[in-house]
Amino acid sequence: MNIFDELESDVQCYARSFPKTFHRAQGEFLYDENGNEYLDFLAGAGTLNYGHNHSVFKEALLEYIQADGITHGLDMHTKAKEAFLTTLSEKILKPRALDYVVQFTGPTGTNAVEAALKLARKVTGRTEVIAFTNGFHGVSLGSLAATGNSHHRSGAGISLSGVSRLPYDGYLNDTIDTTEYLDKVLGDASSGVDLPAAVIVETVQGEGGINTASFEWLKNLESVCRKYDILLIIDDIQAGCGRTGTFFSFEDAGIKPDIVTLSKSLSGYGLPFAIVLFRPELDQWKPGEHNGTFRGNNLAFVTAKAAIDHYWSDNGFSEAIKKKSLYVSNRLKDIAESHGAETLSTRGRGMFRGIECASGELAGKITRNCFENGLIIETSGPEDQVVKLLCPLITSDENLEKGLDIIEGAFSEVCSAHRSTTGATKQFNNLFQVAS
Question: pTM for this structure?
Answer without folding.
Answer: 0.94
